[in-house]
Amino acid sequence: MANAQTPNSAVVLKIAADQVAAKVSPTLYGLMTEEINYSYEGGLYGELIRNRSFKADAIQQIVHPDAYDPAKNYPAKFPANTAPKFWSTVGGAKIALDTNTPLNGALNVSLRLDLSSAAKNAPAGVANGGYWGIPVKPNTTYHASFYAKAQRFSGPLTVSLESADGKKVFAQAQISGFDAGWKKFNATLTTGGDLTPSKENRLVISTTKPGTWFNHHGTIWLQQVSLMPPTFKNRPNGDRTDISQILDDLQPKFLRFPGGNYVEGDYFNERFNWKETIGPVEQRPGHRSCWGYWSTDGFGLPEYLGWCQDLGMEPVLAVFAGYVLKRDYIPAGPTLAPFVQEALEEIQYVTGDATTHWGAQRVKDGYPNPFKLRYVEIGNEDWFDRSGSYDGRFAQFYDAIKAKYPNLQIIATTKVSSRTPDLVDDHFYRSALQMQSDTHHYDNVSRQGPKIFVGEWATREGSPTPNMNAALGDAAWLTGLERNSDLVVISCYAPLFVNVSPGGMQWRTDLIGYDALTSYASPAYYVQKMFNLNHGDAVLPVTVENLPMRDWQPPAPRRGGVAQTNLPPVQQVPTLFFNATRDTRSGVIFLKVVNAVGSAQNVSVEISGLAGVAANGEAVVLSAASPEDTNSNSEPTKLVPVTTSVDGLGRQFSRTFPPYSVTVLRLKTE
Ligand code: AHR
Predict the structure, then answer these.
(1) ∠ at Cα 614 (610, 618), nearest 5°?
(2) Which residue range(s) make up the domain with 661?
(3) How far is residue 308's CA from residue 302's CA, in Å, rounded to a whole number?
């Protein structure tokens, strides 16, 4: 519990505009991403068919490190005679997974569809309801495709986009020409103008012809059944437009991928094995995500790069470093060498030109230009590895990467002593008051050691997406990161995405929410947008008089997952947070003020070291009536920043900051 204390005298902020306390990192604000909460499958990735490759039922082999061979593709196995998850039958059709009729070595199972019940008035087929629905919008063209082979059946099949109850058909196409060999079939489905956007829909593939030959009925096998909507910037195999737009509006400078825990996997053969995520999508085997569901890897390494290209972000590449979440590791030495080699090749895939082996593969995958890469992260959260193996593993990766790519900066995921990393990645998941009590975290950290990457941070209040109180915790925290961004050169919130449909969430506070049809940004997102779009290149020194404080009882520490009985001493935490930066070219000063409590607070501002400050400027304000207020799919814009013109500014002015608010004042200077 926290109690606001009213200060006896007015709060005064004194800004020394002719001094530079630190340089602001131009790449401070970026994104962190991994396959969690249906981030790509059922999220950013355009694909609308769930379990398109029928491998969601796969049982992956669990491989002990001693027997593990990184060069081997460990095949998934399937329970016999089961119908695939997320598919249903239409009419009297019978379906089963068939491991005897693979499309290829990667997609080594298919859907067998027995057509014997099909008749003129009784279509038989299969249906897929997508990721908690399939979005249907007016005047929209969807691209359907699948691989098929048949016995005693040449067609036609009808591909139809229809309501979940089958009563409304929005678009359909007929496909013929099936025979005994696997072939790819395509159809274009365009909806009319007279429909209301909806998600309670399905894709149906069916026929009214049973197919016959000497009293035997027809069978058809399907694989890689896909339905793609229009994608952001029309990128093939690309991304959902609404979510991409939300991200583009944030103007992120970099993308940390592919994890997080996703880069590690629970077991060795469930790591992010990048070589199995490139090339044609039908050649990618897919794998189980450590967050408990199947990833087709249709969103693989090339798609991460496509995302970077679409949004103008710099990749921050995390490589698998020999440690998995079930606490197995591969010790430094010869057994780790293939993984180091794998990382070097991955870097070549990202940065190499067409004359290099892996650069040429990237060109083939649709990305002719090498990507600029500055940062490579070795593993993820290796403080979990209690064996102490990280120091040696880090050194082996560090030496090999620096030898081949001396300009790359190497990020360690925890402290190491074997080498001096260029950056260390710190993670913070906390309550709003914990964030607010620690805004000076980096103020006194030595500037002689490695730089800092705050690779995951979030105030975890509100679910599935953060509420205003979390946004206030984040904003206070960001005043500290920005003030210290000579040291903290890159930072990103995590997790980025959540599919808010029932069962879609594995992590309870996530920046951006969506279902199959709609998406929204949380107040925490708007805080990041306000900060990223409103900062200068120089941090100005700010001193404060009469800073209002409140009492805060920090939670009991936890040991071995158990809360201890001895509470730490009560702390004093400010109720106001602030920083000031200046754009040295335009002269504009960005003053940020966070009022974390439910009463308005008046602040006097005194700016020295300048000839003048214009009387008129702008204020961008995000505020809420209650700290629990939030955005959602049904109220996507309940809390959004509002920009207004302000006057009465100058070298000295006072302003009242509303309850529960984050404000950026843009001050023009002379
Ligand atoms: O962001 C969710 C998870 O939190 C990340 O995958 C992991 O790195 C951290 O523990």
Answers:
(1) 120
(2) 11-20+542-667
(3) 10
